[in-house]
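Hi all, long-time lurker, first post. I run a small reading group and we've been trying to get comfortable going from sequence to structure in the token notation. Rather than ask abstract questions, I figured I'd post a concrete chain and ask someone more experienced to write out its structure so we can walk through it together at our next meeting. Sequence below, copied exactly:
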Amino acid sequence: MYRSLSRAHIRSVADAFTRSKAHEKGRKDVAERMESSWTFLNSEGQSFFRLKGESIIRSVQAQVVDALRCGERERASNLLSNVSTGSDSLRSDDFLYILDYCARSPDPLFVMETWRIMEEKEVAISRRCYFRIIRALCKGGYVEEAFNWLNFLGGKHQTYPILPMYNSLLNGCAQMQSMMHASRCLDLMEERMMGKSEVTYYELLKLAVYQGNLSAVHEIWKEWAKYYSPSIISLRKFIWSFAKLNDLVSAFDTLQQMVALVFKGTASIKQSAEGKFHFSRLDIPVPLNNALEIRRCNIEESGDYLACSLSRDCSARIEEPDGRNDYINVSGIKTEALFGVDKNLNRAVEADKDSSCLQLFPGANQGSNPGFGIENSEPCTDGFIMLKGDTEIKPLMKVLRWSFNDVIHACAQSKNAELAEQVFIQMNNLGLKPSRHTYHSYIKVVVSERGITDGMKVLKEMTKRTLKPYNATLATLSMGCSKNLELDLAEALVDQIVGSAYLQPFNALLAGCDVMDQPERAVWVLAKMKQLKLQPDIRTYELLFSLFGNVNAPYEKGNMLSKVDAAKRIKAIELDMMKNEVQHSLLSMQNLLKALGAEGMIRELIQYLHVAENQFCLTNTYARTAIYNTVLHSLVEANESLMAIEVFKNMKYCGLPPDAVTYNIMIDCCSIIRCFKSASALVSMMLRAGFYPRTCTYTALIKILLVDGDFDEALNLLDQASLERIPPDVLSFNTFLQEARSKGRIDIIEHIVERMHQEKIQPDPSTCSYVFSAYVARGFLSTATEALQVLSMRMISEDENTLQEKRAYFEDDFILAEGLDAESRILELFKDDENLAAALLNIRWCALVGFPVSWLPNESVWAKRLSSYRLRRAC
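-- Answer (accepted) --
Happy to help. Here is the structure in token form:
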């Protein structure tokens, strides 16, 4: 979308062009007018002023520009009127300095005000002035008005637009991302046979990148290469384009051409007073050729406003300097094909053998190493120094470093750590010192693909080079640490982020606190967020409900005090949400309902269910079904079976279709009311709805039968699940063991334990507890200890060879170790593997009571007896 000028509409431009000039003011002699100034315009539209002397008009122009720089527009307007009264014969050069400032600022409104005064004073406006007016409009976002100017100027021979004017308009189209105006500009250029310059190609590259049109970038590359030899600036722009569109193959290949060009010793660039780099050669425009033109595809056909293509006889291949034709494939190319040295680069190095033996790729084939090529590679800068002087090489190295950064950044976007490492190694070997931006992109891809450990190694090397990481770099590392649950390190990295609003690492740290159940650490995180004045988002509140919604520890029932405290916390979180104008999401509402269910706050649970219905009534059915499933699960866990049935009926009445989770929850609810018939009816409804029973479904059905003491039917149901290829899990078997222990059925317990062993289902701490307590209740203490040791060994591994390999380590450091810290070391294992820690504690206890430790559990008397019992029953 373009904007309309508020102070000088384009219609006044049309009126001005329809008026004929009465006469043109005569010019005085140069020697008599010391205020004259000359402006030279290069191919890129850059201006260079040379003054013959200080004049009154020149001084007034400077005062106008100074006023504009200070923001005093009214004073600038008054001074501008003085320009017209300062001399009897005004020329366009008398306003050129003001127009040039407005073009560079840009200030399109004041440039139109200046033009209006020039029109009032009947100043003959030169092409140079028109160029600055158009440039100011383009840079200021008034591309429609700029296009109309170009269209009007084309009708006058004296002010016929030149190619830099069209280039400025294309630049404005790229800035405003207006493909419609770009297409109109290209049509106008084609109509007036303007041809194209290098700047034209650069502006077309920007438009193609904005459009995401990779094929257009390749076509521009092929057409440009037919008329221009590679330069540092041009290769830099193409590398940027390829990298932006994630074409790593082309970006890497073009980067190698840039390196080869630098080492040939012929590359040179200059830096303007504004700090911009430019190539010193003349930009000779390419004349329009009917056989080679820029064509726009029909919008209805392709949906693209811009598509640069060659003529029909042009091939889609790229001519390499060695005569080899390779089609650039933009997908599915292995990165191993990129790591060879480019042939142009080899030729450049061969040409400079006498100067030095330049090793561009030392270590390029080294493969991965802990330091990613940083520690083991030596930078090579001698070749650069010998090719050019220090003043000439600095701009080259700066531009070269930018291109390397573009490729590494593209690798980070594409998560290609292998290519990023190779580019980083080459960059270091060429003597290009990586910047903080380089390290940021490199650390980002390393953390995402290789883990936080390797990312911290790169950060260590960065600090050795006295480079302070960006806040974004620290945020990336902190989020990686939080994902790996290394919360101490994540907290330390977050603490280094100062003066910048990065909410993501704080949310990641809160998520880690939620997983590790550390609400006290989450309080510190919230305090840090408040200190940095970070406004929470919906993800923050989702985690807060999960962390602080319920007060009691897991597996503890709520009491009156905990319910009051939980209600206060929930109210405080919701008030903060209202303060920050954040509405509930599906996950935040689910976490809130789970917290209420965990505390047993049934009345509040039903109230919030109605709130959720009103909020999500217009959303998809998935959100509403998920809300109902959360409420039903909380009611079943609280043994509120009758209320769960009422909620389920209301769900069906509202026309909300239950899913597989809903049916499984209600089948589990039937175990509370001990009604196998209702459970069977739910299974029938489930099958008609297109959902098939799963392991949890059979577990719930088995639980109902076991509550009634029907072990035989429950075993038959277990066999039916196996026939239907629904694998049982440890929870299914523990359901049998729990009921068998309560009813004293040792035979069922031994049968289930042996079946678990045959089906390679590893026990868990609950399995050991049920079996051990069942034997103890019957007075079989020795058998209970033997069974506990056998099951604990199987918790570590079902493979006896694996147990033998770990025997020495576990016995010396944990089981038979002396000292008070032995059990503390076992407790440390609970952070990573609860089953392993519980197994080691059980075996250590068996050893302390005098039972010999055997690392061959299948050779124990108890295990052999269970195995022989199974064989006899099978016969």
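A couple of things your group might point at:
The domain at 1-19+32-186 is CATH 1.25.40 (Serine Threonine Protein Phosphatase 5, Tetratricopeptide repeat).
The beta strands are 37-41, 47-51, 270-271, 277-278, 318-319, 325-326.
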